Amino acid sequence: MTASGAQERLERNPGYYQSLLDAQHDPKLVETIRTDLHRTFPDNIHFRKSADPCLQKALFNVLLAYGEHNKTVGYCQGMNFIAGYLLIISKDEETSFWLMEALLDRILPDYYTPAMLGLKADQEVLGELVRMKVPAVWRLMQDHGVMWTLVVSRWFICLFIDILPVETVLRIWDCLFYEGSKILFRVALTLIHHHQDEIVQAQNLPDICERFKRITRGAFVEDCHAFMQRIFQEPGSLSMSTVAKLRESCRARIAAGES
Amino acid sequence: MQKEHLFKVLVIGDLGVGKTSIIKRYVHQIFSQHYRATIGVDFALKVLHWDSQTVVRLQLWDIAGQERYGNMTRVYYREAVGALIVFDVTRASTFDAVLKWKDDLDLKVTLSNGKPVPAVLLANKSDQSREGLRSQIPKLDTFCKENGFVGWFETSAKDNTNIEAAAKCLVEHILAYEENITNNTDPDVVALPGYNNNTKERVRTRCVTCSKF
């Protein structure tokens, strides 16, 4: 809360969260959010309809408030998992809202806007980093014509929620709030680098996808303390300026390709 | 000789219409109320022993339904040879979006002869439909004809209604096209988009012409 500036914003803006909820809401936004309520952490008892209190209501409020706060973003699938995860941890709607604001408005690039340009760029940035640091895997992807988005989009959109074990995600998010979005590349690169021998044995596209799922499970990611040490060693040096440069060139490339 | 086919099939439609449930029912014979919203794309493989000579491997691509994922997921359309377009009979807005999905499909991918890929329309969650909406369903015959769907089915992933039938219908159309192509592999004939290259048609046409003389 403190590190991300969320605490300060909460204190400086009393009543803001409530005012967002009291505003007139776009019916389309409300319907889209509602569609995903029962499809967010369906296995978690706090999100069951029978739970008391049922976190589905709190989830609805946080997502609606954010959609009102940032009308450009509105609601994007994936944000349901982020808000839900924040609610599980903080157990408070308003705190979750401000943490979400910190993440989406300041820490992450524009992942969830309608054009999703920041997300598309970061998938390509990861591709470029793999080309430099794990060339064998990069070549495999080239040979089979597999786009990075196919195997890593969920990693970025859900910030590893529901992909890595809960404790590991908690540790990653600590770093995310303290050190920024670069940490996502460290985690992704570590997973790929550590399992490269396994990945390059893939024979075809479904096989590649399956292996990219498999590397997010098992002892390597479950031992969260050791895993967090690995992410700062295994991928080697990764400066913010490298990431910034790559982001800029990937963005330009995507924008040129779409026009 | 046994023939083996690999077909890429897209499962598309608005968010929450039951695309994932349909695939899980079809591939794993299960249903749950507890599926997560699909982010990005997922896929599953179904192997069909079609007849004594034919094995069909269906690669089912489960594509996220939210509109903004559209320009990211469209890259997955290439090389698809069929599609299931799904709507939810309890939410009219998901039916209104069906044509948007169909147009989008036709725009992004076509068969090697330039024709649209076969698409089957699924009116899902039929177990929850009320009489009011059900009375609209007979009109779907006309709707499908007018909009180029090869057929439609009232389905329920929950009750396991018509999922197999819908998939079978789609595979029949895909196979019919494949056979048509194989029968027509004449190196001197170039298949032009929109031109009917069917051998029988050509023979008949020629005969009609001959008989005139």
From TrEMBL, chain A:
Gene3D superfamilies: putative rabgap domain of human tbc1 domain family member 14 like domains, Ypt/Rab-GAP domain of gyp1p, domain 3. Keywords: GTPase activation. Residues 1-180 form the Rab-GAP TBC domain. It holds the Pfam family RabGAP-TBC. One of its GO terms (molecular function) is small GTPase binding. SMART domains: TBC (SM00164). The keyword tRNA processing does not apply. May act as a GTPase-activating protein for Rab family protein(s). This is Growth hormone-regulated TBC protein 1.
UniProtKB/TrEMBL annotation, chain B:
It is a lipid-anchor. It is found in: Endomembrane system; Membrane. GO terms for biological process: endosome to lysosome transport; phagosome-lysosome fusion. SUPFAM superfamilies: P-loop containing nucleoside triphosphate hydrolases. It comes from the Eukaryota. One of its GO terms (cellular component) is trans-Golgi network. Keywords: GTP-binding, Lipoprotein, Membrane, Nucleotide-binding, Prenylation. It holds the Pfam family Ras. GO terms for molecular function: GTP binding; GTPase activity. Belongs to the small GTPase superfamily. Rab family. The small GTPases Rab are key regulators in vesicle trafficking. This is Ras-related protein Rab. It comes from Labeo rohita (Indian major carp). The lineage of its organism: Eukaryota, Metazoa, Chordata, Craniata, Vertebrata.
